[in-house]
Task: structure prediction
Amino acid sequence: MKTDEIDAKILDVLMKDGRASYRQIANRTNLSTPTVSARLARMIKGGMIRKFVPVLSTDSLDRGLATLVVVKVDSPSAAEVANHLAKLSEVQSVYTTTGQLIILKVSLETVQELQPFLAEHVPKEAQIISSEIITGTIKEEKLAPTIPRVLTMDLRCDYCKGSVTSSRPYTISSHFSRYYFCCKTCRKAYIAKNGRKLSMKTPLPA
Ligand SMILES: [Zn+2]
Result:
């Protein structure tokens, strides 16, 4: 199942303000609140939105020392090393280059932490080319994220577990959840099986 323009509008608001309420998103996108809530539920269920988390500004964390570390790794393990380093909370950015270099921006509390940090986290097969303390930041800007026009969600039919491919899937809304079906037959079969447990409401807009 693919996202459409409505999903994109909602995501656009959320990417800028992850704490926007359904009502605020609705206002900013000219959609109705039920539409926003239904679309978000679908994107969460479809695994497209994994979680809402705060992105802390590293500036506000106030780590005293920023350094640029250049590491050289022979090709087979370069990606592995870069991925390992990227997982560390001290590592703010990781770049790989055509010359098999990995360039890291590492934020630490004090200069005394730098050598132990490198000794612990840079594997032996990698060679540290340089580690420089950043003395001034002239420009560092996060570009506004762009949302791809179309993303794919893996929304599964609640009856047969098959892929829901239609952009207007068959649904059932209960008090607590919303169920999605690939076809009318699955929806009917699901109601036949679980009918008593489902408290039906008028369906929300897709
Ligand atoms: Zn199905």
